[in-house]
Amino acid sequence: MAWEVFTRPVIRTGEPAVTIGKMGRIGFNMVATQIFQENSVTHVVLMWNKESSECAVRSASSKDPGAYKLTFNQKSNGAGFSAVTFLNYIRYDWTETRAFNAAWNTSEKMLIFAIPTQHFGTSAGNRQELGKVKRPDRLKPEDLETSKEKEATNVVS
After folding, report:
1. For the chain, first and last CA: distance in Å?
2. Quick one: residue 62, left, alpha or beta (phi over 0 = left, psi -120 to 50 = alpha)?
3. Residue 87, exposed/middle/buried by CB under 10 A (0-12, 13-18, 19+)?
4. Which of 11, 25, 29, 60 lies 20 to 30 Å from 70, alpha-carbon distance?
5. What digits encode the pLDDT tens for the residues 85-115?
6. What pLDDT digit, counting tens, does each position of 109-139 carry?
7. Max alpha carbon distance in the chain (Å)?
8. How many whole angstroms separate alpha carbon 70 and alpha carbon 73?
9. Residues 106-126: b if buried by 16+ CB within 10 A, e if exposed
10. What span, in angstroms and rounded, lies between the C-alpha atoms of 49 and 51?
């Protein structure tokens, strides 16, 4: 049997990047996190440009309405926050984790990234519903039983 080289799906980059995960969380790579820390960014507001399919994550005060608190990991090489309602608002299909290149706008103090149009749903059926996506370790006992019953039904079908 011939050997096959595994190609790593994650590409390391020296540029700021944004990842939108399957749990509705927006995450930032180490470069973007360093930019936020250098600019003393602890809270952000999300902005949306429908015409260009661009998102912006702008520095904000904790008192700004709609501000999200950035959560930095212990090593300070990543940061993020939950953005389920925003992702549903822009009709983004967040059933798959995807990464996007970003650029820091110094004068506006915001990180800007474009989302290709193929990642947007055209109907409500492509949107995640609030409360429907749960981590397995956070399921209640009754939800866990229902989940196991559904799995058993899918196997039998």
Report:
1. 36
2. alpha
3. buried
4. 11
5. 999 999 999 888 999 999 999 999 999 999 9
6. 999 999 999 998 844 444 455 455 555 555 5
7. 62
8. 10
9. eeebbbbbebeeebebeeeee
10. 6
